[in-house]
Amino acid sequence: MICRVRFGGCILALCLCLAAAASPITHPSEVSALRAVKKQLVDPMNNLRNWSRGDPCTANWTGILCSNDLGDDGYLHVLELQVLNMNLSGTLAPELGQLSRLRILDFMWNELTGTIPKEIGHISPLRLLLLNGNKLFGSLPDELGYLSKLNRLQLDQNNISGPIPKTFVNMSCVRHLHLNNNSFSGQIPPELSQIPTLLHLLLDNNNLSGYLPPEFSNLPELRILQLDNNDFSGSVIPASYGNFSRLVKLSLRNCGLWGAVPDLSRIQNLSYLDLSQNHLTGPIPTNKLSDHMTTIDLSDNQLNGTIPASFSDLPSLQTLCLENNFMTGPILTDIWQNMTFSTSARLKLDLRNNSFSSIQGHLNPPVNVTLRLEGNPVCKNENLLNVDLFCGSESGENEMLTNLNNTTANCPIQACPRDNYYEYVPASPLPCFCAAPLRIGYRLKSPSFSYFPPYIQPFEAYMTRSLNLSQYQLSIDTYSWENGRLRMYLKLFPSMNNNNSSTFNVSEVQRIRWRYMSWTFPGSNLFGPYELLNFTLLGPYADIKFEENTKGVRKGVLVAIVVGGAACAVAVSAIVAILITRKAGQRQAMTRKRLSSKVSMKLDGVRDFTFKEMALATDNFNNSSQVGQGGYGKVYKGTLTDKTVVAIKRAEEGSLQGQREFLTEIKLLSRLHHRNLVSLVGYCDEEGEQMLVYEFMPNGTLRDWLSAKSKESPNFGMRLRIALGSAKGILYLHTEANPPVFHRDIKASNILLDSKLNSKVADFGLSRLAPAVEDEGTVPDHVSTVVRGTPVSLNPL
Ligand SMILES: *[C@@H]1O[C@H](CO)[C@@H](O)[C@H](O)[C@H]1NC(C)=O
Ligand SMILES: *[C@@H]1O[C@H](CO)[C@@H](O)[C@H](O)[C@H]1NC(C)=O
Ligand SMILES: *[C@@H]1O[C@H](CO)[C@@H](O)[C@H](O)[C@H]1NC(C)=O
Ligand SMILES: *[C@@H]1O[C@H](CO)[C@@H](O)[C@H](O)[C@H]1NC(C)=O
Ligand SMILES: *[C@@H]1O[C@H](CO)[C@@H](O)[C@H](O)[C@H]1NC(C)=O
Ligand SMILES: *[C@@H]1O[C@H](CO)[C@@H](O)[C@H](O)[C@H]1NC(C)=O
Ligand SMILES: *[C@@H]1O[C@H](CO)[C@@H](O)[C@H](O)[C@H]1NC(C)=O
Ligand SMILES: *[C@@H]1O[C@H](CO)[C@@H](O)[C@H](O)[C@H]1NC(C)=O
Ligand SMILES: *[C@@H]1O[C@H](CO)[C@@H](O)[C@H](O)[C@H]1NC(C)=O
Ligand SMILES: *[C@@H]1O[C@H](CO)[C@@H](O)[C@H](O)[C@H]1NC(C)=O
Ligand SMILES: *[C@@H]1O[C@H](CO)[C@@H](O)[C@H](O)[C@H]1NC(C)=O
Ligand SMILES: *[C@@H]1O[C@H](CO)[C@@H](O)[C@H](O)[C@H]1NC(C)=O
Questions:
Q1: CA distance 491 to 467
Q2: For residue 62, how far is its CA from the centre of ligand 12 (angstroms)?
Q3: Binding pocket residue ranges, ligand 5, CB within 6 Å
Q4: DSSP assigned state of 539
Q5: Distance between Cα 276 and ligand 6 center (Å)
Q6: Rounded Cα distance, 682 and 296, in Å
Q7: Where is the Protein kinase domain (predicted)?
Q8: What is the pLDDT at residue 460?
Q9: d(CA 208, CA 161)
């Protein structure tokens, strides 16, 4: 066995080298598996033409992404297989099961037929299994339930039949079960209620029957329960559904349900309720629903009683549909009179075909209200002012996409290259900036609103912030609603600050594409899960070769730490040392976090801060105090009244968790003490805010030090010290902490340096502290990916 030269100098790395083989090649069983996979596919566009030449990992096979470093067995391993949108048909080969290190398996939007091979259930590291948008049939193998690391299962829009396997209860990390638009039948397994991480359960448009499991209300993280268009005839909506703790959307349209509408007033974040087209009876519960309600659709039932007065107190309401019921009493004009319509807001009130007999208040709603009353006794009251305005049959208005910031109206048409790949950037602050966009077909699968205009700006802000772009760089070219899903065609433009370059550079394209394809956007209650329909690389981007990115390399090394968690501290430190040495050619400097005062951290226990104290410490969360931004929220530098300088992590809306869970986590964190862990000073849980207060690390992150921006390189001694320190911190977490903590997100930006340049590990034990950050740090953050293959793979021309 030969040590690879790049380990050079680091004697400690020796024990690692024992495992390294001389020339990197893909594991033979994975090579033969890929060959078998290809054999069973029909590839009319010949997208996989180079799958027959050379070695998968070293000869750039289309859609194959490999580990960059040799595994413990001396081979390279396939980590991702992503061949979406390639017009592939044929079937999935059972040999897929031999790709034993695979983390992402993505065959979305092809024409595959046949059944899902049970062997896939044996790929234990699998995180994303994406087979939606094919023509798969047959029933699901029980073995899928053994994918204990699976985060996301997307099988929607196939024709898979049979029951949902009970074994799914063993997918103990799964957050997304998207099985909608198939032919699943039978009872929904109540066992699913034992998956503590479940966030989105989409089972709509199947042939499911039986009853709605009352236990689902125990799912601590569940945000969306969508079961529309199934047939649970004779079943009722369990009263326990009023106890959901985090639910945002409950959609049970056309499910054959009987009985009463349950009282859902205790669900704090409920925003979207659709119980239409059932056989529900009795009155609507009068208790006030959440202030977040945007949509209430109870139409086409047999409800009686009056409109609850509490409906006049729903400030975010967009849609209230009560048509085709047996409701009586007056129409409450307070519903709109009490609302302040922000720009672009509107309210749709559909009350047709009931027994409403009078109006309480004045019937002169503002233009932003659409009111429909036909088919009610009130329409026969000719003395009532204006009533005929609302009793005719009018067609619904359409949503209009008006791009208010479009600055291109007066730009000369001939000045922007007319080859279809370039266009004026609509919202560019610099008028007539001509650039080539990336084009993305995108769909919100289950948003928690029913009218987009008021949320367009927030959406643009959310998406561009998550991509680290400026808001003008995103343009929503078109959008349309499709049965409650919101399809969009997005264009992303390069920044005009980059010397007015009219294209993204390769690494930017790669970064953006990866972000969409790995589902690492921060979770959002408002927007819910998304689908990537296509990511088209045209014109100047068509020839992009995806190359190794240094980021991937570093992550790759780091994943080794996680995987080899049991190995000796020496080995770990060696890896970190290599990580640092690799960037040796680069320069470093201290970045923004420059500070002289010493942090006093030896606090007995953990302090409970008030919101006021936090606001004071950060000058009211002034932007100038912000030192970072994570999925969980913003990080501020703050100075407490006793002059202690601290880092304050403030949870964003959407990342908040229940108080009990929050305090439990604090308790857990407070037990972790080690000189190589960033220590927790306190927390704040007040005024709907959740913050964590840590000791401040004046010398920033290791990532800063290694970044290209830096001026001088850390010397060898320092590198070694950082490596050893980090290793000790990690070792403590893994082996000495009680209970042990699995870091899950070790990366250079989570290794911080204190004033004496000692390294400390940050962000440990936060797995559950960021519940709404759906997928932040699941697979890809830890995976070494050498991105290879064709960029156009996503959408062949
Ligand atoms: C694979 O891609 C890399 C980077 O583009 C290139 O340097 C290398 O020559 C390619 N290998 C083969 C066999 O095409
Ligand atoms: C590939 O798929 C696209 C859309 O899915 C279709 O328009 C096109 O005709 C297909 N091409 C071939 C060669 O099958
Ligand atoms: C889906 O599968 C069922 C049988 O499981 C079959 O009856 C039906 O025709 C299939 N639908 C489509 C669109 O292929
Ligand atoms: C879950 O897995 C365990 C062992 O891995 C197995 O014994 C059990 O039957 C599984 N549960 C279900 C419901 O399949
Ligand atoms: C799902 O199925 C329903 C009913 O068949 C259909 O109306 C809807 O368009 C489908 N949705 C998708 C995304 O295919
Ligand atoms: C409302 O409907 C329920 C159930 O159908 C019935 O028992 C009740 O008498 C009705 N109430 C009124 C006021 O009609
Ligand atoms: C709505 O307005 C009415 C008067 O128009 C008022 O009596 C009622 O308290 C208001 N409700 C809320 C929740 O503001
Ligand atoms: C009503 O909607 C229009 C167009 O969306 C908007 O310009 C206007 O400000 C809204 N009116 C009110 C009273 O909010
Ligand atoms: C912007 O305005 C121009 C010219 O009026 C128009 O051609 C273009 O479609 C608009 N773009 C968007 C995204 O609204
Ligand atoms: C990508 O998806 C968008 C949105 O559905 C669609 O408008 C566009 O035509 C698609 N592009 C390609 C190349 O399929
Ligand atoms: C559009 O303009 C408004 C105000 O003019 C601004 O607040 C908003 O950020 C702009 N949006 C974009 C995408 O630039
Ligand atoms: C495989 O094909 C893709 C394009 O389909 C190309 O980018 C890549 O370089 C090819 N690799 C080899 C080894 O030919």
A1: 13
A2: 6
A3: 157, 181, 205, 229, 483, 485
A4: G
A5: 18
A6: 41
A7: 621-797
A8: 95
A9: 10
* Cα distance between residue 509 and residue 276, in whole Å: 43
The runs of H, that is alpha helices, within 282-396 are 334-337, 387-391
The Cα–Cα gap between 251 and 270 comes to 11
CA distance linking residue 388 with residue 396, whole number of Å? 17
pLDDT, tens only, 9-26: 333 333 333 333 335 689
Ligand with smallest separation from the Cα of 402:
9
How far, in Å, is the centroid of ligand 6 from the Cα of 370? 29
661-676, pLDDT tens digit by residue?
677 777 777 778 888 8
Six token digits for residue 767: 């797995």
Active site residue 745: yes
Report which of 68, 151, 78, 108 is spatially closest to residue 534, judged by C-alpha positions: 108
pLDDT (tens digit, 9 = 90+) per residue, 392-407?
Answer: 876 555 666 555 667 7
Q: pLDDT band for 575, please (50, 70, 90 cuts).
A: very low
Average pLDDT, the chain: 81
61 contact partners, CB below 8 Å, separation of at least 6: 34, 48, 50, 51, 788, 789
CB 533 within 8 A of CB 442: yes
Q: How far is the CA of 155 from the centre of ligand 10 (A)?
A: 21
The token pair at 401 is 């996409």
Atom of ligand 11 nearest to the CA of 474: 13
Residue tagged 């034993």 (tokens): 100
Instruction: Please indicate whether residue 239, judged by its CB atom, sits closer than 6 Å to ligand 12.
Output: no
Give yes or no for residue 194 CB within 6 A of ligand 4: no
Contact 582, 554 (CB under 8 A): yes
pLDDT on residue 545: 53
Task: Give the active site residue among 685, 745, 763, 775.
Answer: 745
Q: Is the pLDDT of residue 705 over 70?
A: yes
Burial profile 206-220: b = 16 or more Cβ within 10 angstroms, e = fewer: bebbbebbbebbebb
268-286 mean pLDDT: 97
Q: Which two tokens stand for residue 290?
A: 């959440």
Choice among 113-117, 125-129, 424-428 with the minimum mean pLDDT: 424-428
Res 554 pLDDT > 80: no
Question: Nearest Cα to 747, choosing from 586, 558, 583, 552?
Answer: 558
Taking the alpha carbons of 574, 578, 579, 580 in that order, is the dihedral positive or negative?
Answer: positive
Given ligand 9 and candidates 401, 403, 405, 406, which is best to mutate, with the most ligand atoms within 8 Å of its CB?
A: 406
Q: Is the Cβ atom of 547 under 6 angstroms away from ligand 1? A: yes
DSSP codes, 31-98: HHHHHHHHHTEE-TT-TTGGGGSS-TTTTT-TTEEE-SS--TTSSB-EEEEE--SS--EE---GGGGG
The C-alpha atoms of residue 46 and residue 558 are separated, in whole angstroms, by: 36
| 3-state helix vs strand vs coil in the chain, percent to 5 | 25, 20, 55
Instruction: Please tell me the predicted confidence (pLDDT) of residue 716.
Output: 76
> Which residue has 């922007």 as its token pair?
416
Q: Do the strands 633-639 and 645-651 form a parallel or antiparallel pair, or are they unpaired?
A: antiparallel
Q: Which of 20, 25, 34, 153 is nearest to 99 (CA)?
A: 34
Q: What is the atom index within ligand 10 of the atom nearest the CA of 477?
A: 7
Q: Domains along the chain?
A: 1-24+553-599 (no CATH), 25-331 (3.80.10.10), 400-541 (3.30.70), 614-787 (1.10.510.10)
Q: Which of 304, 306, 327, 356 to mutate to test the pocket of ligand 6 (most atoms within 8 A of CB)?
A: 304
Q: Is 400 exposed, middle or buried (0-12, 13-18, 19+ CB in 10 A)?
A: exposed
Cα of 792 to ligand 12 centre, how many Å? 11
User: Is 649 annotated as belonging to a binding site?
Assistant: yes
Q: How confident is the model at residue 237 (pLDDT cuts 50, 70, 90)?
A: very high
pLDDT of residue 73: 86
**Residue type, position 550, single letter:** T
Q: HEC string of 678-705?
A: CCEEEEEEECCEEEEEEECCCCCEHHHH
Q: Is 709 in the pocket of ligand 1 (CB under 6 A)?
A: no
